[in-house]
């Protein structure tokens, strides 16, 4: 068994033994964490940590459900605006429990909002290395086949990266196909038609059936400059489609995406943290 769920009166958590590496060392993770009081949370977390310790791992990451392909991170600061689509829920008690138990923030992220009227003012430099094209809306399975291949290359050097099987990837992403809008999904293709990058945007359906904001959810590239071109295409298309604002979602503080978001003068409205604990031998 590589995972176990613990429940007490007023709290629940799942421990996963086969998490990603942290500083080159295998780590367990804790996720699916909820509690009605700090005391209840500390009690159930203690049970999860005892299980992890007895099973061997000496490092723990959280909140994280298995790995970074799944839900992870806790809200650490907020302007109290409503959560956007697929955003981690704010759970102040969970944050208090982690800190009370000795977890410290080891990686930080943010989301920012920008009026589309002020974005995409200057086209990026022309290039012959790739061209940008919108998804034609056809063959979503083929779309995610390409995204899987590029993602496993582009994200492999990221902190806390853990490989995922093709089957697991498709099982996670195919159910979101009905949410996709082809005008907010872009590819960067080299002259030989191989994929140099992709960008996934989606309407913020958390606002209801007629959202006014579009989320720049995920992008990755293998060619220098592709991310800048993809972001320009997304902002331009979202503005044309009638959205009034863009959300730059869940960006690592040290990522190049953070500089691009700042260059658009986007305002940070939420911060998140991933926390870690080193268990004593």
From TrEMBL:
Gene3D superfamilies: 3.40.630.30. This is N-acetyltransferase domain-containing protein. It comes from Falsihalocynthiibacter arcticus.
């Amino acid at each position: 068994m590589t995972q176990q769920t613990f429940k007490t009166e007023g709290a629940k958590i799942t421990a996963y033994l086969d998490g990603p590496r942290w500083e080159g060392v295998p780590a367990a993770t804790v996720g699916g964490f909820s509690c009605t009081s700090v005391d209840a949370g500390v009690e159930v977390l203690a049970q999860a940590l005892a299980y992890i310790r007895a099973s061997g791992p000496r490092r723990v990451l959280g909140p994280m459900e298995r790995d970074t392909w799944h839900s992870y991170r806790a809200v650490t600061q907020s302007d109290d605006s409503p959560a956007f689509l697929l955003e981690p829920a704010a759970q102040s008690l969970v944050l208090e429990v982690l800190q009370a138990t000795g977890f410290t923030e080891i990686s930080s992220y943010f989301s920012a909002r920008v009026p589309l009227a002020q974005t995409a003012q200057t086209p990026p430099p022309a290039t012959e290395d790739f061209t940008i094209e919108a998804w034609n809306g056809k063959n979503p399975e083929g779309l995610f086949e390409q995204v899987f291949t590029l993602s496993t290359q582009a994200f492999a050097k990221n902190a806390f990266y853990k490989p995922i099987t093709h089957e697991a990837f498709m099982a996670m992403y195919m159910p979101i196909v009905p949410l996709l809008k082809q005008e907010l999904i872009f590819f960067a293709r080299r002259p030989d038609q191989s994929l140099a990058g992709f960008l996934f945007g989606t309407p913020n359906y958390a606002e209801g059936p007629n959202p006014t904001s579009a989320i720049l959810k995920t992008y990755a590239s293998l060619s220098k400059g592709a991310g800048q071109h993809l972001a320009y295409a997304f902002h331009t298309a979202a503005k044309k489609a009638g959205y009034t604002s863009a959300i730059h979602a869940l960006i690592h503080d040290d990522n190049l995406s953070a500089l691009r978001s700042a260059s658009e003068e986007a305002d940070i409205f939420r911060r998140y943290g991933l926390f870690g604990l080193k268990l004593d031998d």
